[in-house]
Fold each of these.
Amino acid sequence: MTALLVTGGAGFIGGAIVADALKRGWQVRVLDSLRNDIHGSAPEVDGRVDLLVGDVRDAAVVDAALDGIDVVSHQAAKVGLGVSLADAPDYTDTNVTGTAVLLAGMAARGIGRLVVASSMVVYGEGAYRDAHGPVRPGPRSVADLDAGRFDPVGADGEPLHPELIDEDAPLDPRNVYALSKLAQEHLAAAWARSTGGRAVALRYHNVYGPGMPQNTPYAGVASLFRSALERGEAPRVFEDGRQRRDFVHVRDVASANLAALHALDSMSPGSFRPFNVGSGMVHTIGEMAAALSAAAGGPAPVPTGEYRLGDVRHITASSERIERELGWRATTAFDEGVREFATAPLRSAVSPEAVRA
């Protein structure tokens, strides 16, 4: 029986991976810090799981968690854009140092198989094309954003045409969270080369589904819309709501992780491979808000024109590589997933004091 460690396994995505692994008969251990700015109350964990409460930055805790383990799914991370630059030390310490401690522990114990949670944010802006071919625009200017000019433009001043982005695109992280996710990828690749291990990075696109965080500043946009609707408020949509995204259901993300874990044995020693994990369908943020409002019978969303400098305009995934190489594809249709999510339970609310801590 395969023994799997899931770091962050009491969280939103980690919990879905644990549930999928248990269904497949795997032996599962979870290492989770149960941070109170992420978990409003102690989450329910399946009784078949060996739960170890501790911090992935603590080498002694990590060593205990790795005892008897065959393969690791590293989901523990601080996620989201953050509130301000004051979050930067926590992002780098949690995501970068935590990953380094985990990899050092795996090397010491001779554990050679790893799947690490990465993100679409490592790309920066998505893929675009102008009349002459592919273009990668730079960050949007404050002047353009203040004037409501949200779409990147080409040298001729015309809006660029967004396309699906693949794993060979240049990486261009544009905020501290994105930098920390790319650092996790680089650490995993360096670990694989130096130990002969095998590593996969899954670049999640916009994950949604039951069990999302409810009210933290780091929650995904779909969760923020859901929480507004539960309060009887209209979802507030930044910019004009036409930002293109790929919304992928959490159950599909879990199955992508299991596919990647199975595929590690067939990889060459010392290899590292990134994969996009998306639904393969493009929807705007405004469409997600409107679909949730309709499914919940709530007020229509309101585009606010507000923006965040760290946000990108359009980022949508090509998931051809993961389907071709791992045989995985998403199976949850957008309409089906949104209808379920509109009334599905979220995680317990986090207190304002915990968020500020």
Note: Residues 3 and 69 are 5 Å apart (CA to CA).
Amino acid sequence: MAWPAVKDIFQSISAKTPEGEPCCDWVGQDGAGHYVKMVHNGIEYGDMQVIAEAYHLLRSTLGLSYEELHRVFGEWNEGKLDSYLVEITRDIMAFRDEDGEPLVERILDAAGQKGTGKWTAASSLDLGVPVTLVAEAVYARVLSALRDERVTASKLLGGARGAFDGDRVAFVDDVGDALHASKIVSYAQGFMLFRAAAAEYGWRLSYGGIALMWRGGCIIRSAFLGKIKEAFDRDPGLGNLLLDPYFRAEIAAAEGGWRRTVARAVQLGVPVPAYAAALAFFDGYRSDRLPANLIQAQRDYFGAHTYERTDRPRGELFHTNWTGRGGDTTSGSYGA
């Protein structure tokens, strides 16, 4: 293995944390490092989308000026949301074009992409991991690119619109909570994907070590990452970050504002696909009963795909002749 021979060179020239720790390390064999970098970029797509949704809500519903937005993002960057992307968003809000007008207002709202977010979402489907926030972030970029169609549709399609009529200061706090909670879900989903990939490809990943590598020199650099390392230090076998005591408490504290943000966005017709997807995942993940039993019954009805029963051991498959006209032949099934 070449890593021992190049470790000192790479770590000496790599980005460092404020404490001087190198943000460069051996991840694993057979492409593990490339995979981790891909998922890093997928999470980056999600982080950018949740920040953009905060900007959209505060600008379109509250009508905050760019000076006010600069201040809000600056304040967020001093707390739990301290991160490179929030920091540069603060700076973007303050940047002016040659005539003194906000430059970001003049940038065409059609986002590009290089593909790593799409690859992350595709891998999550292959491995059966619901990385829903990254997928929604990718689709949000795709939708943004349909700008000519959107401009036409904006003139033809009605729908909810209106001005915010509540407590403006409280709503800013709620949006911050939605951003924070959605970010937690995004990272939780990303680390779920790491665990599934490690099992599939035989990698021995250090999940806490991965988080530490992202603390400096990375677009998703944030104070948040140290908490991920601490979570895996507490429980190296942690199945999901949402189950860690720290992240459970953070979600509980942000949940009310998160729900109010999504509800108000729906009422006012402002799209928040990442916040909504993250909340739907959270509610699904914490549910001990989902309507998939009906889906399995439907699949068995029209295609004899079989189902399992709650009163029988897992893995035992059943088929029902729902109409009385079919036979006993089944087509089989598979689970994600």
Note: DSSP finds 13 helices and no strands in the chain.
